[in-house]
Amino acid sequence: MAETDDVFPNSLDARLELLDAKPQFDESGLVSSRYNLRLNPGECALIECRDMGQAALFADMCVGLIPLGDGHVRCMGLDWADLDERRSNALRGRIGRVVVTGGWVDLYGTHMNILWPQLHHTRTPIDKLQSQAVHLAVRLGLPGLPVIPPGRLSSMDRQRAACVRAMMGEPALLLLEHPMEGASASLMDAFLSLVTDLRDRGCAVVWMAPDESGWGDYASDATIRLRLYDDGLFSMRGS
Amino acid sequence: MALFRDPVPVRRENTLSAAEIVDPTKSPASDRRRIFQILGPLVGVLLVIAAITGISLHNYQTTRKGAISLSNDLLRSQQRYVTQEVSDYLAPASIGSLIAQDMFRDPLTNATPDTFMLYGRSILTHTPQVDSFYIANDQGQFWMITRHGQDGFEQTHFQIDSGRQVYHHVYTDKDGNITGEGADPADGYNVVTRPWFAKAVKHQNDPDRQLHWTDPYAYISTHQFIITASLAYDGHDGHKSVFAINISLNQLTSFLNRLQVGRSGQAVIVDMHGQIIAGHNVAAGQDPKTFDPGNVFLDPKTQPVFTHALNRFRIKGPGTGVVEANGRNYVTIASELPFVHRHWVLLLNAPESDFADFAQTARRQNIGFSLLVVGLASMLALALVAQGRHVERLRKRLQRGRDQIKAENASLLEIASTPDLFDPAHEVPILTEALTARTSARRASLWRLLPDGDRMLCEDAFDPSRDVHSTGVEISRRDNGKLFEALEEGHTLSIADASQDERTQNFQRVIMRAVGANTLLFQPVRNAHKTVGAIVLEDPGQSEAIEHIIAIVASVVALRFAKPFDAAAAEGSSGLSVPAEKHDTRFDEGFLLEPSAQAGEPVAAGVYPQVPVMVISFVDPYAPDRDSIARAMTVIRTLSLEIQKIARDSGLFSVQVVSNRLVLVGGCSQTPDPSAAVRLADAAVSIREACLSSLAAADLDPVFRIGMDVGSVMASELGEAPSVFNIWGDALNGAELLTGSAPDAGTIQVSEQAYMILREHFLFRARGMFYLPNSGITRSFILAGRR
């Protein structure tokens, strides 16, 4: 039903747009400088950031978790500041994220951790979700969907599971905080193949890593390469 | 990026919000507005109904109150009138007795008291309600005068006649002339003990109650209902005399009967015990012979209103009230009749409807009008809702149009941003994809007219439901003559049922039937006045807005097709010919170690329940130049020799090479053989060591993974002379999956079944539990080494 307050998802809209976004330092810990970034569907930003903690805060700002002193952060044309809690939570359901700290609930099996976001946000039947999760897990080099608690998985397997979790559903935006730390070439290949698939379907990707080795050969396929410093985002192209 | 691109083009459709529970792009305010749009008018109508009902109710109450107070006033005046009437009716008693006590002071003797008789005759003649007079004294003298017959009077004297007590009657005419005499026995009569005498004497000195009224009683002989007023006074001789006047209440009853109270009201006079003194219809329906007027009481059954009113009077005293009985409301009024010492109560009632009838009518009319207003308001509200929905639909249509323009722009942008758009050597799948997306056609295809003009070649067809592109179909002028004619004329064909149209009949059978399409849109593509191809849409929808995109795609296609069918394709046509030199097909069995070599007997075809299977997978090394390829080939050759040797030494059942993988079977027998699994695992460890050392020696990364499973397989000889032994089944699938998902290069991943058999002989590291839809939760382990 069309109403003036509704926002029509437009394929020309940016998936992620930071417009002079200036976070409040005292509330967030993210340095209060101006951030600008625009990612259209299918685009990929590789961001180098020495301090992954700072990168995580930057990702938090992208999903509207950090109060802004000034400027706008928009996702799919929706300004986080304009959304009530219910709608912003729903919008976060469209974002896949690999968190550097893991973000696992160890009381339940990894499979639950992987399926929860989609079970919460969508009405997709569970067997469809299961088969998608198993498909992603196998492609990322797991023998199936892991069911033991995440804490008991090896760290590489946990990383694989984190990627599965981030790519579940049809994310409109991927926020990857150093997802391929210490990955083997084959895992990297599988991961890049999945990321490329998602980009082909219009997903925008923000990939953060402490140094260039974090994304291997993918640098040439990125739309934009940036560095995240204390005083903002800086282009790396040509450097 | 192309390196990582999925080979199958994926549909660029936004399927994000399909299954979402909360759509973040939808504002909750719009839901609220929609609800208000429907509920607003309805609530309005409800409010109107409530207001009208309230007003009507209030109106009715006010009118009713007014009507009741009006009827109370009316009743009150009626009551005053009745009171006056009754007072007038009974006045002769009080006045008469007052005069009498002055007139009749002479001592009573046996001689006829002429003054009394004269007085009596006079009053009886002129006052119809007076029935008779008594005069008596304490010496037992008793005189009475009453009417007798027509215009006659009867004078009665109580006397003792020859020792007997009798009433001596003397009949006179109206002038007092005696016309006859008679006597009645009166044994035991003593006037002094009569109530009217005794009470009057008793209250002689009580100024308030000097005039004593008896209870009404029936005078049997005359069927009159009588009440006696008596007054005692002292005669000149010092004896106490009592004068009494009897008043007939029958006259009062007939007066009340005549009285009009409202339209159908009634009046009644009762005493405090409910005995009826006079009133409407007191004697109605009673047998006149047995009727005792002195014993008529209010009947709560037949006179509920009066009973109720009397009860109220007893409690609250005089006043008005409303009583409900028999489903109707009655207005009542009750008041004392003050001039009689006993409490006589006048009760009047009248149905409320007599007075408030107009209020009832007005209420009915009000309800009618209200219903009319409510109906109109409802119609208005419905019209408002309908109008709202209509506006909403219009807005949606506008929005659809806007969305369509946006989507078209997006498609245009997508087409425009496609690299090498006009280069015929590059395929541009986006054209057909955009066509299907915008026209929602079942299939869209681009056909190139080949230079000979007799054939059309499908360059690209896109089926969105299966998400596949296809190409290469050809149609010729021979089979589709009419279609080619239409093509050359350059007219757009839009055919609802292609199977019925002779131009497209054949095309429908050959091409369209495959997807079950029936509607066809055939758009020739022309460049420089020459037809170069056609755009075909099968089952297109949204016919009103598809010209744009077709025109855009047509212009792009025209430019692409304008260039001659490229040289590469022409070359290809000659290069495609099958080489003349033919080799014998090789049926070499791909085994490094042939099956069942040691047993010497052929393996029977069938299902084997517990076969250990191992798969070793090598990642193709990335070879930038020929030298390194040659080097790698050498390494692979030595490696294969080593693996063959290890396999033979371990006594494996078979080792088969399939592309870059090795399939090793530990043993193949119907009875489970744990030692076969152990042998296989032992070989795995040895092969891993061999691979690691030889790859390291050649300075190559360890690029192999090993997976092992124990489970059922199917085995059979396939083909004949030569036949090939082949196995397939669960165990092989499991081993393949475990190989593919081995966590690191150079690791051996084994299944839970294999682990159960091998755990006593080897060291394992658990990887975890994993779920697979077909096999449920399984565990997998990394084989670390021998114990």
Describe the structure.
- The complex is a heterodimer of chains A (239) and B (787).
- The mean pLDDT of chain A is 87.
- Helices cover 33% and strands 23% of the residues of chain A.
- Chain A is an alpha/beta fold and 239 residues long.
- Chain A is built from seven helices and eleven strands.
- In chain A, helix 7 (185-200) links the parallel strand 8 and strand 9.
- Chain A has a six-stranded mixed beta sheet with strand order 6-8-9-3-10-11, with helices on both faces. A four-stranded antiparallel beta sheet of chain A has the order 2-1-4-5.
- Chain B contains 15 helices and 30 strands.
- By secondary structure, chain B is of the alpha+beta class.
- In chain B, helix 6 packs antiparallel against helix 7 (430-439) and helix 7 runs antiparallel to helix 10.
- The two termini of chain B are 46 Å apart.
- Helix content of chain B is 38%, strand content 27%.
- In chain B, strands 1, 2, 3, 4, 5, 6, 7, 8 and 9 form a nine-stranded antiparallel beta sheet that branches. In chain B, strands 22, 23, 24, 25, 26, 27, 28, 29 and 30 form a nine-stranded mixed beta sheet that branches.
- At the A-B interface, helix 3, helix 4, helix 5, strand 7 and helix 7 of A face helix 1, helix 6, helix 14, strand 29 and strand 30 of B.
- Strand 7 of chain A pairs antiparallel with strand 29 (762-772) of chain B.
